[in-house]
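Tokens in:
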């Protein structure tokens, strides 16, 4: 068995706010999004060897380890060989960027093993540039413009996925309008009230569209409020939603209640402090 050389976490991406501000001639939508990362994520381990991928973890069964897997695509883009082990803790295709986070973690890990980061990482997926940073950021364009933000308060949160697959193209097609204003100026947030006050002035424009495809998303948001969340919203194109809570104990209690619906529900943290890279 080969020795693991590098372990990289691949934290879940959350679009705390997401405005659709336009549409390009090729049909792709222009976004303005406040992105942050959660304490929960996948994990990638790299060791020297020919290019290979092995997947374990709670969501391994839903994911093919073939050549299209974003871990392998990332290594090929970097021109690097490595034996990759992925622990898939995040639901697949659920609006929290698990595939992009995995690709970014592979690229970061390969960089630690001496391989240069490839240019145009966004070719792997729109969320890969922000996932490479894995820190709070404003994301614009289709994801290629990433501006790091000073930081966000670390807050208890719960993620819920109702187990319904939502197609990203279908959600974009279901949009009623594509000309939202940009996000309001993003101040420094010193506490939960600051952040929630700012979030209340924003939207996830994809949420209403996703709800037409998967009405259960509305039930998830209602259940978050019933469980004491101070704020609840869908991330990305769904169907995963997040709720913010006043304490870690309340988040854990809420996750227990939300699981009773038969949904994947996990208590974690928003923007946990991570050691500097
Ligand atoms: C919506 C976001 C927000 O962070 O998150 P997720 O829901 O993926 O987590 C991303 O922009 C998702 O980007 P990405 O992950 O590359 O989307 P894909 O699944 O590759 O895109 C599928 C399709 O959705 C449409 N699409 C996607 C992104 C975009 N900015 N405009 C679009 O119109 C296009 O029809 C595209 O062919
Ligand atoms: N390592 C990976 N993890 C998750 N999805 C992957 C991976 N590799 C390829 N994919 C594919 O990428 C697509 C997007 O997955 P993901 O990034 O989890 O979702 P989303 O873009 O909704 O946040 C899925 O359809 C999945 O089949």
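Residues out:
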């Amino acid at each position: 068995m080969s020795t693991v050389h590098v372990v990289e976490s691949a934290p879940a991406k959350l679009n705390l706010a997401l405005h659709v501000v336009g549409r390009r001639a090729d049909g792709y939508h222009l976004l303005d999004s406040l992105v942050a990362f959660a304490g929960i994520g996948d994990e990638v381990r790299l060791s020297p060897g020919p290019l290979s991928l092995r997947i374990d973890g709670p969501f391994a069964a839903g994911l093919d380890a073939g050549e299209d897997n974003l871990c392998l695509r990332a290594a090929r883009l970097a021109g690097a060989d490595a034996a990759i082990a992925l622990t898939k803790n995040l639901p697949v295709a659920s609006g929290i960027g698990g595939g992009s986070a995995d690709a970014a973690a592979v690229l970061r890990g390969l960089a630690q093993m001496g391989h240069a980061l490839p240019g145009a990482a966004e070719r792997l997926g729109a969320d890969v540039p922000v996932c490479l940073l894995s820190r709070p950021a404003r994301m614009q364009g289709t994801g290629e413009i990433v501006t790091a933000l000073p930081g966000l308060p670390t807050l208890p949160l719960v993620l819920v996925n109702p187990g319904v697959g939502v197609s990203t193209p279908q959600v974009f097609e279901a949009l009623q309008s594509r000309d939202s204003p940009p996000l309001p100026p993003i101040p420094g947030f010193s506490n939960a009230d600051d952040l929630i006050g700012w979030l209340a002035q924003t939207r996830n424009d994809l949420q209403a569209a996703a709800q037409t495809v998967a009405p259960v998303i509305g039930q998830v948001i209602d259940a978050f409020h019933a469980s004491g969340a101070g704020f609840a919203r869908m991330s990305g194109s769904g169907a995963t939603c997040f709720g913010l809570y006043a304490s870690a104990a309340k988040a854990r209690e809420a996750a227990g209640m939300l699981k009773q619906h038969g949904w994947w529900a996990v208590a974690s943290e928003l923007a946990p402090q991570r050691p500097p890279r």
